[in-house]
């Protein structure tokens, strides 16, 4: 059954019908479509637009359809044009004329705008919960390894000593920002477009606020043109997801490096690794590699939405049917990646001895050596030059700064004395970095607790506002 056949004298060409159909992907919004229709029918009955008894009959019919879909007693017809057509057709086949009254004062344009918002609000909740769980895992691990010294890198070159806990909390901060973005997106998404009609509202005396209340929205859209043609919330959520996936991808890249024999800072649990079909010694970080690869999908989904919307005049255009596959795929991708990624991080084995060994071999205490001279009264730029010469000497003669004899230090500058070895100790270098935001173990433990508490507060606030 087509909802628009009255004006047409010929059946739609089959190939064109298949091309036009969206049932293959919008059928996942069946529950939301029925929820929206129940609220609409309730409001129509309360406002006297349709008979109260018919309103109740429609509601019971819709509830029956939802129950049958949930139990498997009813299957969605793949030949239906879209989920709205299927539900209304099934309702009419069960109720007769009463079912035909459901679409009073409603267009598929405001109906689909509603369904997508209802569905994506739930997706926001799902993804928010997963990202919160990831931050909690990182806080737990950061506190556990607050004193594990490792090299910090710039340009993938050993730079300065930090701790593994500090490194993990950097990602914790990224994912906390992702949580904030998701919460803001849901807030802007949380308005009900139903009542906008096709583009110009309706002459029926609707109570739009009542419909919004029934569906758990915080408000309604205030322009009928914008109500049916706005897909900012899809683009914004896709952007949030793409950024979160970029964060996961960066983390995955480091995990891939860390579990290689060249680094060997961590070892992934067997449950989150795979082997080779020909090389028996291999233990591959496939989960992290897939997360890194799937980031391209999420970025592509965002690009699809932005490109699809950029040239559309108001109001609804069929191009907008393309919104669903892109945003659904983005949501599915992040959900799937987090489902595998969180336990992978939670169960990975950390190897602090290897981190400490790498930290000792990269002259990452050179800045602290220069700071030592500054503390003795030498200008920093001169201290920098002296330390650079010392590093060059160490490389040429296979020393580290810790093993370099004091007499060599003093050949480069007379301000060096025995206390230089304490000043350049890796542990002292890390422990001394107590400035707010620094990597000292004390700081890391404090920051892990703070981040955990802030995440839990954000989670509670988000839940309180959930519609």
Q: Rg from C-alpha positions? A: 30 Å
**Overall spatial form:** elongated
> What is the straight-line distance between the termini?
34 Å
Strand content: under 5%
Which helices and strands, and how do they pair?
Blueprint: H1 14-20, H2 23-26, H3 30-46, H4 52-71, H5 83-95, H6 97-100, H7 108-144, E1 149-154, E2 157-163, H8 164-189, E3 191-192, H9 208-214, E4 219-220, H10 224-229, H11 232-258, E5 266-267, H12 286-309, H13 322-347, E6 349-350, H14 352-360, H15 366-375, H16 380-397, H17 406-412, H18 420-423, H19 426-431, H20 441-465
Parallel strand pairs: 3-4
Antiparallel strand pairs: 1-2, 5-6
Helix pairs in contact: 3-4, 3-7, 3-9, 4-5, 7-8, 7-13, 7-20, 8-11, 8-20, 11-12, 11-13, 12-13, 15-16
Can you walk through the features of this model?
With 467 residues, the chain is mainly α. The protein is built from 20 helices and 6 strands. The longest helix has 37 residues. The model has no long low-confidence stretch (mean pLDDT 94).
Quick take:
This protein has 467 residues and is mainly alpha-helical.
Question: What labels would you give this structure?
Answer:
two-stranded antiparallel ribbon, 467 residues, mainly alpha, elongated, 64% helix, 4% strand
